[in-house]
Protein 1
Amino acid sequence: METMLESQPETPMTPESTPPPTPAAVETSHGIEAIKINTWFGTNHVLKDISMKIKPRQVTAIIGPSGCGKSTFIRCLNRMHEVVPGARMTGEILLDGANIFELDPVLLRRRVGMVFQKAQPFPTMSIFDNVAAGLRLNGMTNHGQLAAIVEKSLKRAALWEEVKDSLDKPGTGLSGGQQQRLCIARALAVSPAILLMDEPCSALDPIATAKIEELILDLKKNYTIVTVTHNMQQAARVSDETAFFLLGDLIEFGNTKQIFTNPRDKRTEDYITGRFG
Amino acid sequence: MERHFDQDLQQLKERILYMGSLAETMIHIAIKALVDRRKDLMKDVYRQEEEVNKLQIEVDERSLQMIALHQPAASDLRFITGAMKINADLERIADQAVNICETTEYLLQEPPLKPLIDVPRMAQIASKMLKDALDSFVNKDENMARSVLVRDDQVDELKDQVFRELLTYMISDPATIKRAIDLILIARNLERIADHATNIAEDVVFVVAGKDIRHHIEAAETTT
């Protein structure tokens, strides 16, 4: 597998674009900052000079038309982009002020969890084992400890009441919405600081979607959440800040209320009002 | 890309403009009936008020339907919420025109108190304010909307002037009190019309530029 990763950018960075980690940055714990991110799939330049400061304990929504690079961007935040053959990136990503490319990717992904578009419970595992999987991989064997964390994670994912009597049943036997919450519980079990969500509701019906949205609003009290969505109303409902991507450029990033009532850039306006084309 | 939704927005705008033109005509007729002492004109005002009332309900229904079905955002959302607010102001302006007619009916039963100068002047300024506010809505012209706001003070000053003048009539001859009070009420109606036109102009600034300038928030924010 060809994996290329350059932690140094191709273009020299100005001092303004690479602020050193400051005590203030460390204080605002669990924020994540992207500095001049460029990515490629082969020769295809997917993200162009993206710089974004994602605030802690807030929901940041990334919106934009298909192919604009929004999923690629969040996959950079836990270094999943680099595992794609032929993919490479330049720029810096700071988690609590520390460069993520200097961290062990496994440890990083424990701190920066991800929930995908289609719920993917481990098919051979029970509900309990699905949630406990990450903990066991990290060496936890004490059943009492595991059970306590599984229960806490399922409660945080608003699934406990629905599955507490069937923890030994297969995870794949749950409904789509429940499976997605199971995946959220699985991500929460390893105590991440940041939760990335890539279209977490696109395969769900409105009721299951509403549950996930309620969950996102609850989770942001403790976690920093970055969600990619095609559903503009969802971005408007759940996020504090919204970023609009177009053809690999970050067009506008700001307060969600402002983006949806009075966007500054005409391209943002055209996209969110459906005038694009 | 032309959207079907744009047709809905256009129709909403046309209904608002039609309501606005009715309201303007109602003010014009009401003041003409007062100045020319022509009771016969006023039935048109009462008829048009019923039309404005129906339009008010129609505009609200259309707006709610568009919000429910299309979940508009950004300038579309500002336009629809702005239309709903302008709708309410236009209906109140039409009510004020009816109030002027009702008071005029009493006044026409008595001989004229004095030649009317300031009251028609107030009506002229208030009507122009309404017209310009609606034009600024159609043309998305923030500057024109702002030009409406400054004229509200002129109408307020004229109303005070009318009040002071009529006070002198009432003090010197108690027999004029009823007619003087009726004229003060009409001046008050016109002053309210100017206030509603001001509200519309403020809403237009929000629709066009996304800036809320009500209650001088803008000035307060720039000075702090």
Protein 2
Amino acid sequence: MTYSIQQILNALQLGSIYALIALGYTMVYGVLRMINFAHGDFFMVGAYFCLISVTVFGLSFIPTLLIAMTGVALLGVLTERIAYKPLRRAPRVSAIITALGVGIFLENFTLALSPYPKHVPSIIETVNWNLGGVTVSNLQVIIIVLSLLLMAFLHYIVQHTRTGIAMRAISCDIGTAPLMGVPVNFVISVTFALGSCLGGAAGMLYSMAYPVIDPYMGIMVGWKAFIAAVVGGIGNIRGAVLGGFILGGTEILVAAFMPSTYRDVVAFSILLILLIFRPYGILGKPRAGKV
Amino acid sequence: MYGIRSALSSRATLPVLLFAGFLLSFAIPAYGLLDLYVQLIIIYIGINIILALSLNIVNGYMGEFSVGHAGFMSIGAYVSAVLTVKVFPYDQAFLFFPAAIIAGGIAAAVLGLVVAIPSFKTRGDYLAIVTLAFSMIIKSVFDNIDYVGGARGFTGMDRLTTLPMTYFWTVLSIWVMRNFIYSKFGRGMLAIREEEIAAEMMTVDTRRVKALAFVISSFFAGIAGALLAHMLQFINPRMFDIIKSTDILIMVYLGGIGSITGSIIGATLFTVLIEVLRPLEMWRMVLMPLLLVVLMIYRPLGIMGLRELKLFIPGHDGACLRDKPDKKGIQDAS
């Protein structure tokens, strides 16, 4: 019993990080119908911002979080303006390949600047509480609570602000929205800023939980988060959160019962089987084909 | 100018040129016409051309977005390597090598058929996930099979991928894939890319076309993997991860989708650029993606996107493909 509660906590921790990254994919997809494959690397850059802020400036938790979030948000907006905006009317694959290119650029640029894996010093002193046999660290609590807060914040923006309404309008019909006075470029920038800052926050939380970071860390985590977004139904915000927790849960579950080398095989197989039964994701709606 | 053009379009010229190239590929290593480093790069180019063209069939001609091509490649590499090292008589490995290559291709093709089944129901991003997950599963499976060395990798192959061998397989692959593209099924692929529902109404057997496209694409990826394994004489599962798949994607989209010429140019340019920029060391890998982004912004369809050298078009006049498909079709399909 205590063992399973322990595993549930681990699953929540991993799942909330996946969910934060998956939200970035899904936000951009919902508005632009474009997969931002550089998003996993935004996550990695967030971890490096965290490293710089802690080792160079010696800042504490909250300023570091703000630096990681705003830094990555700026990176996201800049990337969109420079690389994706000229391709808005081009075939969709061109935008996807550009995003892949941006991602590889970020990886190798970071690699050229700092070639070796780095250890992130702990920002917060770890405290372990023992609750009836279950060990809970303050780090776990911070990661889970902060992720949930950020998700609630995103939900508020999308559902209850004017910008959020504009986002949903563009998602509905990008051709008609500007005719109704929606400032498309501004809203797309805001979308990228929001999605990227969640990725940056995830990067920081990840580097607190697993403190060795390297320039390629974003690839695997990014693709997994993308899978989470698709399983939940890409373009759907609640779906991304659900997908993130499902993926985190499966991975922890598999690792608990089998050798850890089998983790990816089983996790991906389960996701594939899920996609066979729900081809458009759990919360996604199939779009009717028109000729 | 006219003389060259008419000479090129004569039916006899192409086989003669190809045969001359074949003889040259024997002569270069035999008389040391080029140094070993350049020979190695040429072999790389050949392998990359097979890879890029085979991915172009699914991504460029059929308009899907497969992102796990390296997975098929790894099957070909492992199956052929196990055959030449552990099954076939070792001292006669050279004689059995073509059989090993074909076996690698067939094994990859079987898996391609498995991936094709979900493609009947889903398209676009969801199919991308399926291919991605398949390639990750394959990598993890090889990581866990001790018989082929697990994560440590597999070694013991002879250096069987010689220059003539690469030349022969590259030309053969281009020829077979080009014929497939201009066959009944190839036209079906184009129809699926432009509009799947309309294609189905026009009696295109979409399931069969999709299955065939995946099978052929993965078959040649397997062949390229087999060639690579016997060139490097060492393989491990990490060589066939997402980064490798991304490299192949870049070659395809750099050269241009839906174009045989494009894939040849893309693969050659990618391979040569990486070698030429080597003096820049770490920064070459920074420069390469930047070049790709700039190219995509100014030429979103790649260098030869949807265009073809007349050489590859049957009948040489290209009348059947003169009407360029409009860009919108591709936009919707992917």
Protein 3
Amino acid sequence: MAEKPWLTRPENVRLLWRGFIAVLAVTVLLQLAIPIHGHFGIDGTFGFFAWYGFVACAVMILGSKLVGVFLKRKDTYYDE
Amino acid sequence: MTSSAVPFAALTLVLGGFLLPGLRGGARAAAVLALPLLALYFIWALPEGAGAAVQFLDYELHPVRADRLGRLFATIFAIMAFGGGLFALNQKSAVELTAAFVYAGSAIGAALAGDLVTLFIFWEIMAIGSTLVIWSAGTDLAYRASLRYLMIHLGGGVLLMAGIAGQVALTGSIAFDRMDLSLWPQWLILAGFLVNAGGPPLSAWIPDAYPEASFSGTVFLSAFTTKTAVYVLLRGFAGSEILIVLGLIMVFYGIVYAILENDMRRILAYSIVNQVGFMVTGAGIGTELAVNGAAAHAFTHIIYKALLLMSAGSVLYVTGKRKCTDLGGLFQSMPLTTVCGIIGALSISAFPLTSGFVSKSMVSQAAADQHLMLVWLLLAAASAGVFLHAGIKFPWFVFFQKDSGMRPKDPPLNMRLAMVLFSVLCIGIGVFPGPLYALLPHPVDFVPYTGEHVISQLQLLLFSGLAFFVMLDKYLQRTLTITLDFDWFYRRLGRCAAILAANGVFAAWDAFLRRLRGVGGGAWTTLYRHHGPHGWLARTWPTGSMVLWVAVLLVSYLVFYYY
């Protein structure tokens, strides 16, 4: 068995997570240097796009889950 | 010179497609690559404005009208035919490329059509061409999907035809210009257009039919039908507010269904509905910036969606598998396909420096300029959702996640070249949006790369990525499932109703025969002897005896005529 590729080794996955979180922090902190004015007020507040993006995605994932409860079927459903 | 280009702009691909089955090897490859370039040349050689008129019945047709909007769509259709043709060079089916070129050529014809009748003719040729593209995959599933697809599009064509007939009856004009929905036929025309756009409730035909085509067929299919619909909506119904609502429904429908989906090409098919939703919303907002944004987004979308489907098609081509549950870990042996797939995924997510960023941000900006706060908030949420369902989900489950153990190589050279070409276009347009902006229907006064735009978009997308990986294990694991959609009504309910109705008719017929026997008695027996399954009068006669009796009739007619 050859060595696992760099990307999938556990220690590197941890490293990637740390790097990702650092990048997230930088994108929010950059707002201090380059202010976002926005059109509606709320979109000019600090970190708006960060929390809005996260919450919107969480809501969409949970919403899909809910839709799935009612509408999911086995993928052979139409073959019968 | 220029006016002689008129008939060729659309016909180069429609007629040229029929040459392909007769060619082999290098000649065929040369024709596949040269025909779209030739069409592109003719599109740009067209003189501005409506071309020569042709008299048809009582109407004056303008088969070709070249203006900025039409030329933009015709241009991207020709580029798409080139890239798709390159990708499909090793496709063995002789039917597929011919059908695809007829399909692409009629889309160009529709984009350049100067009146409703010409538009309708190309609209229907597109339906037939695209059906044949699906059908040429050669599987039973594809055949059945193509029939369902044809049924929907012929139905949409009937709506459109009825609308055009009504429009002509009320106004006496076949001109295709802005319609304000004040006349009832215009609603029918709008409905016909929306069927092809994948508008609600009939969005299911896209994920139902497109993923059943071959590895290369789906690449063609993703480009023309829905984007021609965007084009006609922009020309005919820009500023109709109902389109904002319908567009937003499409946007979120695509996200929710794509999140639940397991088949990689069906994920991308749902995301077509999602992306066309952005364009339909832009058409509904209807300002110059919104129309520019929707048109630019159609242009960039065709390229990155084709690129995504090329990378998915490559995976299908080398592994024969299409479900996320069967795939994973392919980045190790398919580096080029992985990189190109990721470039497509970043572009659809509108990452800065990719083509999606410079087009989609125009639609959002248009909503903000009109002070449509709710629309703007929903579009921002949807932008995050695009990264979620297409931008990360597609590459993650296909190329990374668990190791499927498969180690297939990247696909053949022509497929790799097509992916590289479209990747270069995605990045190129993203870095240098100027040339695309110069082609848009209205003058562009929009700067995509401001510090604000870039930082807000990066926050939105990266935190959406955070949400994906945080919720991955608990909520996003793939299952062997499909999600019921509107097509259930015609694939399940309609079928059951038809079977029940048929059974009811048979039962009633049997009961009727039994009663007849009871009443008629002897008469029934005589009737049965002559007309029953073995009856003399119910026998099938050979054609020869038919001819003989016709001859006898004619002779007796002659005899009676003379005496």
Protein 4
Amino acid sequence: MLALEDYRLDNGLRVVLNEDHSAPLVAVNLWYHVGSKNERPGRTGFAHLFEHMLFSGSKHVGNNEHFRYVQSVGGVLNGTTFFDRTNYFETLPSNYLALGLWLESDRMGYFLPALTQEKLDIQREVVKEERRQRYDNVPYGTAFERLLNLGYDPDYSYHWPTIGSMEDLGAASLDDIREFFSTWYRPDNATLTLIGDFAPDEAKRLVDQYFSSIPAGGSFPHFNLERRPLNGERREVFPSPVQLPRVYRLYHFPKMGHPDWIAADLLSSVLSGDKASRLEKALVLEQQIATDVAAYVLPTEATGIFMMQATANEGVAIDDVEKAIDAEIARVASDGVTADELTRAKNRAEVEYAHQIENYDSRADLIGMMSTYFGNPSMVHTWLDPYRAATGDDLQRVARQYLVAENRVTSTFVPENA
Amino acid sequence: MTIDRNVAPQPGPPRPYHFPQVVRRTLDNGLRVLVAENHNAPLVSIRTLIRSGADYDTPELAGLASLTGELLDEGAGTRDAVRLAEDLGLLGASLGSGADWDASYISVDTLSRTFAEAFAIFADVNRRPTLPESSLERVRAERLMELLQQRDEAGAIAGKRFSHLIYGTGAYGNTVIGNPDSVANIGIEDVRRYYAEHYVPNNGTIVIAGDVDADRALDAASRLFADWPAAELPTRPQITPNSLDSSRIYLIDRPTAVQSEIRIGHLGIARSTEDYFALSVMNALLGGVFNSRINLNLREKHGYTYGARSTFAFRRQAGPFVVSAPVRNEVTRESVTEVLAELRRIRTGDVETMELEDTKNYLMGSFPSTVQTASDIAGRLVDMELYDLPTNYFDRYRENIGAISKHDVEHVAEKYIDPDKVIIVIVGNASQIREPLGTLGMPIHELDIEGMAIA
């Protein structure tokens, strides 16, 4: 059991302390409950652009000084954005805990006075380059974006990817940034997790010093997160500069943490991940019609996502790859999984979880996630329980109920010159 | 109590850091075994380092070392590929294998409660791989598909061409994964020969890190590996880099590109150089970390890129020095100009005390955060063995970095960076960038994707 202390400041900031002296380090990790889900059509890419802006200084921290303060004492840092959350983290030598708290509290409480048009213009260009580098200039780079476009109605918050569109990024104004900050970046919308080599009383005193004067905000805007049903499979074929056809599928699921999502996570291990897994064994090893296959669930809060993809071997029709995938899914649906397969899937979940706990940074992220999505940091102790309790029947039922054509969208990338 | 937010808080007294204690044993057959206990998590990482990699590949059989590595999990002892995966999965273990330029690797990560069983299977993979011919055909086909797909990956095209221009067809000049012709040439007898010649105990080290008892792990290693026969090693091929008398640009057209992938550099220096620590500091300051000159210039000052960096690839023999940056088409020329200006500036002796201290503090202070896990520790020990680092290397690392002066940084910049003799490879939209690049005053050679000159 991890030694957790979980409390709130008067302004609503949730604080989780995990004292651990195995390394002379401290992980300072903030999860804000805001992501691309909280954007509106025409203003996509904001949450992520905003993450970039938060590294460009605040009232008492100069432009680029955030990075410098952390790196110049041997700290490592970054931030990430997804549909439902944005996180900011630094791992510091433990005698620099106060520095981390000073920096994070300054950008939570004193960001707006330092905001300038010039900073926005630079970061807007950087983010556009990020989009080019990771989406537009790489083979299959827009696959996830295309699936989201197909899988959700235009007014639904998962319709667009976190990176946003070039057009919307270009349209972001200083006023937009100010409003976004005031709405979402506030102590009552965040969890601060500290892990490592500190004395809890001292850590509490410092947290109080740096964060307690930051005011809570008003009410949060409403987002309708009820997904409208697909009414049948949606498919597209996308000719693009790739050499081999690849099929991408997105299956709709209940949100992360739901028992069916847990069963889907285990089922994804039965289907892919090593040479004994169903899809890899059938498509790659035996039939040799695909060069690679993958199935996995995503950690999403509003609704669940089960992804599947496979690349056709040269000269193989992508339709044949899809048929082979469907045959394997049908086999699970009709015959279920073996006891050994279930054991292996559970082992993998256990090992992956142990690896996440092992490292301060990823452990802090787990705790932040449990707090942000489930309102309960202590779930970090019980997360694996439903995995252990899952049965072969659960996996079979989930395959039957969800891994069906009516519940999926499919985007197929094919070579444009073929 | 109120606080003064205007100044950064002062640190408390620093806490000591020690790299985990390492227990060593060398078996009679020459196999070295290293164990580092770390009981923070119920996990164990097991690694084999074989001190041969793609550096031994001949041009005709480029890709052999990595294909051999990839075939190791296709069956071992009495288990075929699927059975290996099944039995390891039942233990909660995962297996990996492969090769890079200087070495080949086998890894198993497992739960501490299944260490003994997983280690026995690991030993089978090391010593009794079946290397089946049918698997070679499949893995070869997958490799050919991977090479085919790289034709659309601008970064891969640029990296491949850059290496080739520096090293020619010899060691470090092809890619680790080979090319379509060489991969087609490789037969199962080549794979079995590579395995037999290089996967021998006197060419290897086994590293075990994590939640194990060191004595028991050493005893298990002795039981499983003591009767592995030693063998004489083939002579290592030497690199044959091309010499360069002036800078030139190589442009590879990719008409659909929305970014230019830029590589700028030349031959670097081997890992064994006595200037390693000075070079580490100099490169970190120049382009090795986020707050380095090149990244701050291209990204934070100009917004040309999502990230630019410089690297000295420290290998057994001299690896390349390279600056890499993906930038949007319109600012390709400007980006090249800025990078070259930074390469000149670092040689002129204007290193400021604060940036030097910041960089050294980063390198010294961040080390503990990169060795938190059993797998991290195992990785560091593999490095130590691969490059023959002294046993107290990690404990003395901070001291060695701390001793680097401004003079040292300027000295190695002048000695190892030559902005007037660089190879510049750009993969991008030629119709948009050709003309601006012409104003740089360097010859431009246009190549096709295979590296053939375009008339």
